[in-house]
Amino acid sequence: MASRIIRRVAGSGARCILASPAKSPSSSLPAPGRDFSSQTPITATLFPGDEIGPEIAESVKQVFKAAEIPIKWEEHYIGTEIDPRTQSCLTWESLESVRCNRVGLKGPMATPIGKGHRSLNLTMRKELNLYANVRPCYSLPGYKTRYDNVNLVTIRENTEGEYSGLEHQVVRGVVESLKIITRSASLRVAEYAFHYAKANGRERVSAIHKANIMQKTDGLFLECCREVAEKYPEIKYEEVIIDNCCMMLVKNPTLFDVLVMPNLYGDIISDLCAGLIRGLGLTPSCNIGEGGIALAEAVHGSAPDIAGKNMANPTALLLSSVMMLRHLNLNEKANQIQNAIIGTIADGKYRTADLGGSSSTTEFTNAICDNL
Amino acid sequence: MARRSVARSLLNNLLSMKLEPCSRLTASRSVTYMPRPGDGAPRPVTLIPGDGIGPLVTEAVEQVMTAMHAPVYFEKYDIHGDMKQVPQEVIDSIRKNKVCLKGGLKTPVGGGVSSLNVQLRKELDLYASLVHCSNLPGLPTRHDNVDIVVIRENTEGEYSGLEHEVVPGVVESLKVITKFCSERVAQYAFEYAYLNNRKKVTAVHKANIMKLADGLFLESCREVAMRYPGIKYNEIIVDNCCMQLVSKPEQFDVMVTPNLYGNLVANTAAGIAGGTGFMPGGNVGAGHAIFEQGASAGNVGNEKLLDQKKANPVALLFSSAMMLRHLQFPSFADRLETAVKRVISEGKYRTKDLGGQNTTQEVVDAIIAALD
């Protein structure tokens, strides 16, 4: 049984190495029905990251062990030299490991500043073809912020749009930057958005755009969303102009459910939503790639000022790992861990410094393990 | 003994007396404004009622102006958002009068008609758009100490309208940034800060991704900042900016942004300060100025609001006060603003966006009654 699964995983890994980059949208849905029995461990790649990364990665490993989750971690670290095969400090082996394992968890990475190599996030995004960034934002009960009852998910197209990086200087003092929207990428992310909404019991998907001004580009994005919406008649679909969306989000965020948008708007709106629930330290995130790859990550920085002091808040990385579990259809375990985290924060007895408490990382992690 | 106790009780009275601003001062500030002979002659102002709630709120302004006997008279032109382009007579009128007051013009989504709002701005070269978002007493908000002015480049950037389909399914949109336009809007922002006693100007950008385009914008801002050493200058990335706006808005003073980010930031700031129904704004160029509701969130009000005539006229009334100052009638502007603020703080007449049930006309009547 185990050997058959290993062969299947290895086979799909080999397939993905030889696969062409331009895939049809239908093959991009995450593999449904991955039904692993609780005995066979799933291998997942873990990038602990820098500074506070290793500490919070330890927390995740501890919680997973306490919850008896069948995951075997394969740890990879960022090299100090540039790997010529990837043109960055991320080695080819690390990327291959994610491609083969299909799931990964990434801690915060400090991008070294310098020329001659690509940024780490850009490398991962391009090499693994991560096309959708999913960020659920929900108010944590017991942790009071200005906004209550926030419960929305932002899904952002991650590969094209305004972030194509295609700029040039026409003449001195005049710069052009290209925003590119393609049918295939828009269909892909719209498909994922509706699939996610259906799989997670969400009722409504809102497409965010500025098609009254950018008629052809955002118009194409909207067209693709509408096409996909017709295939999911049970999910309500609406379109909201971006400035109206910003205004409604700060006045009444409960109006939104799932938001799907192109790259730039997604960047801004997902950070705005993180601000509503008081910061990136609590926000989970997951990047979905072609062929069902899921790379969950903590979007906060590496916080060098509290590195090594056992003060870091592992919530973001833990909630991201929960997203990873849901992607693997291990929903019971995911709920178990999520409830433990929410319960610990709601109790208020053990909270890390950024939430206004005084517990250390290990105390907080132990409290979560106890609450499982 | 008795004298000491009398003295002490007098002293106690003095110390416990709350220092309230003299109500006469806030009600009618004595303006030392020495006009030139002939300044009192009525000035013509082009008036464009527009679509949706536009006619309702511009009528409100007309009523209040008549009640105040303000030295302005309106030349009304009826244009609608679905027209192909702005009629030449309207442009000529604005060129002659130099000042215009406008309700919203609805921009149809994706239809292939370019926005009339954008056309007006480009035709008259109104290169800076200004929105003033601040807390008003009597207006319930989640954030305090909000007093932000967003100055947005109005003619280029993402709104160039230069789009084309490369091949079927792939669309490109050009974002154009020029030194000329960036410099003049930065100059306007610093000049505004200088003339209005503002302490800090923040440039909003995404130059870590769009290095050349937003990099050029930042360069221009930095050059202008050096000419105003008394005003603090800093830069913030747009996604971080939105996150800071919803958590710590008091750190922002004047913000200068390219076209698209300005739209988002202005609507977000309007939302946190109490809603787009209250924030004044305008578009200004070298020779002309058009005043309108500051941040309209891309819509002109819905049908129900129109039918029930419950639109909020406050934003346009504040904009018309800005217009009166622009025309150098400060005393009328002050009287108008004081009356509106009094009605809002009393809270007896509230339109739908404040949770009340009063119609526009009732609010206007209350404001006219509050005029002194």
UniProtKB/TrEMBL annotation, chain A:
SUPFAM superfamilies: Isocitrate/Isopropylmalate dehydrogenase-like. Its cofactor is Mg(2+); Mn(2+). One of its GO terms (molecular function) is metal ion binding. Keywords: Magnesium, Metal-binding, NAD, Oxidoreductase, Transit peptide. Gene3D superfamilies: Isopropylmalate Dehydrogenase. GO terms for biological process: isocitrate metabolic process; tricarboxylic acid cycle. Residues 43-368 form the Isopropylmalate dehydrogenase-like domain. It holds the Pfam family Iso_dh. One of its GO terms (cellular component) is mitochondrion. Belongs to the isocitrate and isopropylmalate dehydrogenases family. Heterooligomer of catalytic and regulatory subunits. This is Isopropylmalate dehydrogenase-like domain-containing protein. It comes from Trapa incisa.
From TrEMBL, chain B:
One of its GO terms (biological process) is isocitrate metabolic process. SMART domains: Iso_dh (SM01329). Residues 44-367 form the Isopropylmalate dehydrogenase-like domain. InterPro entries: Isocitrate_DH_NAD, IsoPropMal-DH-like_dom. Keywords: Magnesium, Manganese, Metal-binding, Mitochondrion, NAD, Oxidoreductase, Transit peptide, Tricarboxylic acid cycle. One of its GO terms (cellular component) is mitochondrion. Its main location: mitochondrion. It is found in: Mitochondrion. GO terms for molecular function: isocitrate dehydrogenase (NAD+) activity; metal ion binding. SUPFAM superfamilies: Isocitrate/Isopropylmalate dehydrogenase-like. The keyword Magnesium applies. Belongs to the isocitrate and isopropylmalate dehydrogenases family. Performs an essential role in the oxidative function of the citric acid cycle. This is Isopropylmalate dehydrogenase-like domain-containing protein. It comes from Trapa incisa.
